Model the fold of this input.
Amino acid sequence: MQPVVSLTPNCVKSVEQAQSRPARNIIVLCVTILVVQVFALFSAEMVLYFAGIGEEDISVFDPDLGFRHRSHKRVTWRQEGFSQGYFGQDGLRAPTLPAKAPGVYRVILLGDSFVEGLQEPYEVSFAQQMQERLHASTGKQVEVLNFGTVGYSTVQEYLLLKEMLPKYSADAVILAYTPRDMAETLETWAPANMKPIGSRPFALKAPGKPLEISNLPVLNAAAVPSTKLASQFEWFRQNSRLWGYFSVNKPKFHLKNAVFETVGAIAHDPAKGLQQMIRPLLSSADASFQIQFFEQNKKDQQTQKQARANAATLRRPDLTNDKTGVMRKAHLQMLDDTFGELAAKMNQLCTSNGARLTVLLTPCRSALLPPTASVPAPAPPLYNVSYADEIKFVTRHGNELGVPVVNAQESASRLQSSEIERMYFVHHPTRHGNKFLADCMVPVIQRMMRAPSELAATPIQTK
Done:
């Protein structure tokens, strides 16, 4: 018979405390780890904040435009040049309210990153130089509102104008046309490292059919699981420097970091992403299972490879097999017809809102300098359609609509190569390039301010 051990109340209490201690220790450890992690993240955010790092995630999803500037967003830009600033209401760099004060002459400036000009401080931007010089020369209060947005195509500029012109009551609108603007109007994709979802609306004027403008590619891209997931963290996209840093550098991480690539693949397509993740674990699996798994994976890879090859064929810049030039001619005609319809809609929109439209053909570095220039030129033209081809149809449609066209490309072609090089970082203008653009446009806007009806519908010759 076992002896009966009697425990005093103090002993019972000690045993209970000993039993609960491991659980309490685990809780304390978890809380400590959480606090340390929060402190580390907060410290990293503060360091990046004061260093101005992680402030280049400037785009937010828009169901109609595909993407647009964030509003009320601090920006530090380090790509090519350098600038620090703030996007206010409607993504404008200047603190402008929609309501226009009496006596103010307003100009809306449309374009892509070439006009956006984040590579230089706002004080030396094209828009600000125009504003100051117009005020000094006319004595009137002038506001130049720069709606230039990185990656924008002509159709996006039209859709943005449709929204902003009635809201801001502008007197003049400058459509800054850069090479490939119309090619991007026909495309539905955009560089993923600059856009939230890498998609945009398209416009197309097919022979014998009316102009079609569709945001369906944007809505389709928004339905992707990774895009839906990212939309749940919009507050972090707006405010977190860590998020901004990883968001802007996401393509680099995808190329160099297998873990990041796998996580991204799971977010985009959970089934294939998980398949990619467990592939390294299959080395010890049953042989028949390995064969089945890798055969299916091989088929998927070949399918994807063929799809990429087909896409590359559709976008080949040289079209060596197009001996007769039929494909080039058809592509050029679509660009021509589509731009004509969009320009007509823009002009009609301006007329109905009491504004005057003008077009600025911006100078293209790769079309001005030889291949031996010190800084590499941008990519070659798509489908062998050159900037000269685009200038012809833009100018012709401007003349037909009575819209002044300022050919800054022709003006820049008369400069020395050394002067042209000073105008560019790589793809975007320096402060010298912004001054050149202002030199081209200020006289035209001055004439519009004095006597809009006297401005002839012919190409404007700039100095």
